[in-house]
Amino acid sequence: MSGEGSPRRRRRWTRRMPRLLLTLYGLLGFAFLYLPIVVLIIFSFNSSAVITFPLQHFTVSWYRELREDFVLLGAVRNSILVTAVTTVGATLVGTAAAFPLVRMGFRMKRTFNLFLLLPIVIPGILTGIALLILFVPVLNLTLSLNTVIAGQIVLAGPFVVLVVASRLYGFNQQLEAAAMDLGATPWRTFWHITFPLILPGVLAGALIAFTLTHLLHHRPGQHAADVHLVAGQVRRDPKAQRAGLDHRRADAWHAAHRELVAPPARRLKMRRAPRYRAPAAGVLDSLMP
Amino acid sequence: MPRLLWGLLPLATIDVVLFLVPMVIMALFSLRFSEELLGLTGRWTVAHYIKVFTSEGIYLHILVKTIVIALIATAACLLVGYPFAYFIASTSRRWQGVLLTLVIMPFWTSYLLRVYAWTAILGDRGLINEALHFLRITDQPLSFLLFNVFSEIVVFVYLYIPYAVLAIYASLEKMDRSLVLAAMDLGATPVQAFLRVVLPQTLPGVYASIVFVFIPILGEYVTPTLVGGMSGVLITNLLVNQIHALEFGFGAAIAFVIATFVLVLLLGLRRSVDLERLYVG
């Protein structure tokens, strides 16, 4: 009895074993991805000004401080501006370019495609420094939010092209032909047929442009020139600054982060426009003088 | 409808004026030597490049070190990320959606803070050391965890593994599963089936993750600055130092050496990775 039962049980066990190990591995993977975020949330409620263990006592004072920091609020305004302009600009420009790239054949199309996608794969810091050289020694411009926006659109535009293009590839053009046959003008056809159908793609493109812009703010290094340099203050050795990074500010930042970034992330899951995500980005700039 | 072609104009103009032209100017700058700060006057020279490749080998050494570290981090991303992607692909449709969202979610939080958080995990009074101390495994904090090449690679893997997972997942999804069953029916062991059926079919995903992991790491600047310490200095740190010192010519030369390396790599991978296909699917 047991001689017959146990091999079967063992077989079932050995069949499940890889599955269990894989699931366990997956859980460990997610733990790895979320550990730093959990740590940050914990420290945003910790009374100590430095982020070291053991934890002190629970507090919400960092969140309160956040609302009273005017430097920070100014940066928030800047971020909203940059993100809004970049998102709208990149979405318009990218969508317009996606149509000919998908629907038309022309000479050197492949080369042109590669050229348009190049800003995506070239590390942002190189694009940023090239832009800095153009703006400062060559054109003698004053660095400002305008130059930041210019840099962001270069990086976000190609992403919009990709997303909108993927939507256009699956587009049934007979619908447009039908509308035209029924007497619609091209303009009317566009607004009543084409636009509603590609809208998800355009929104996804806008979301990517938005996310990228918000990320770029968070990536002063990778896009050093975009943020640190093009933003107007050619800053001195960043290492020294970061060594002197004010931890209390940093924790206020954690608080900002939880308050401004996490709730929109939840909203995002509900497919609503994440309105308050960008602000947190600008907070960073005030953190890193 | 040739009118459609006009749609290309704005983006093409932006790309030419704000990407191509700056890159060409940067290349020209790297070939100029000027006595005055920010000067456009000067003479043509390859001195900056000679300095990159000689000057007691510092720049060359750091460049090679950057490439090696990026290679190690990419290999680690692939090794750790592959089973993870496999796990996601092996779940039901509904779970796949949830799990993929969970993989992408960290992107929506601050990049810099996520790097910064690692100092609270790996530091002398960080999560790991405090836990080890609490469990009485160590009396002294392990100081080799932070501010060196090790912590740098850990953070690189942490930051870029989602890209590797997504790329590998995409190719696992497209894979024809009946081939795996056929291989098993014909007597292949699971390991053989994986190596000879699954892996070759997912190579595009592996190549794609090289583009989205290895190349961005070459341009990483925040991570070495925040967690790399003295031993973790990478080429981008040297590059940004030059820019901050307003040594645009020499900085441009360093930037151009990196850009050339990236371009050669992309051209080499062009046959393996169809960039357009990656997104269009």
TrEMBL record, chain A:
Q: Where is the ABC transmembrane type-1 domain?
A: 76-289
Q: Which residues form the signal peptide?
A: none
What keywords does the record list, in alphabetical order? Answer: Cell membrane, Membrane, Transmembrane, Transmembrane helix, Transport
Q: Can the keyword Cell membrane be found in this entry's annotation?
A: yes
Annotated transmembrane regions: 20-45, 80-102, 114-136, 148-169, 190-212
Q: Would you tell me the Gene Ontology cellular component terms? A: plasma membrane
Q: How does it sit in the membrane?
A: Multi-pass membrane protein
Primary localization: membrane
In which compartments does the protein localize? Answer: Cell membrane
- GO terms (BP aspect): transmembrane transport
On whether Isomerase is a keyword of this UniProt record, the answer is no
The record's listing under InterPro entries reads: Bact_Polyamine_Transport (IPR051789), MetI-like (IPR000515), MetI-like_sf (IPR035906)
- Top-level taxon in the UniProt lineage: Bacteria
Which family, according to UniProt?
A: Belongs to the binding-protein-dependent transport system permease family. CysTW subfamily.
Q: What is this protein called?
A: ABC transporter permease
TrEMBL record, chain B:
Q: How does it sit in the membrane?
A: Multi-pass membrane protein
Tell me the ranges covered by the ABC transmembrane type-1 domain, including all copies: 63-269
Give the PROSITE patterns listed for this entry.
ABC_TM1 (PS50928)
Q: Which InterPro entries match?
A: MetI-like (IPR000515), MetI-like_sf (IPR035906)
> What is this protein's name?
ABC transporter permease
Please give the SUPFAM superfamilies that the UniProt record associates with this protein: MetI-like
The record's Gene Ontology biological-process terms are:
transmembrane transport
Q: Which Gene3D superfamilies match?
A: MetI-like (1.10.3720.10)
- GO terms for CC? plasma membrane
Keyword presence, Zinc: no
Organism from which the protein derives: Candidatus Segetimicrobium genomatis
Spans traversing the lipid bilayer: 7-31, 58-85, 97-122, 142-172, 193-215, 221-241, 248-269
Q: What is its main location?
A: membrane
Keywords from the UniProt entry: Cell membrane, Membrane, Transmembrane, Transmembrane helix, Transport
A Pfam match: BPD_transp_1
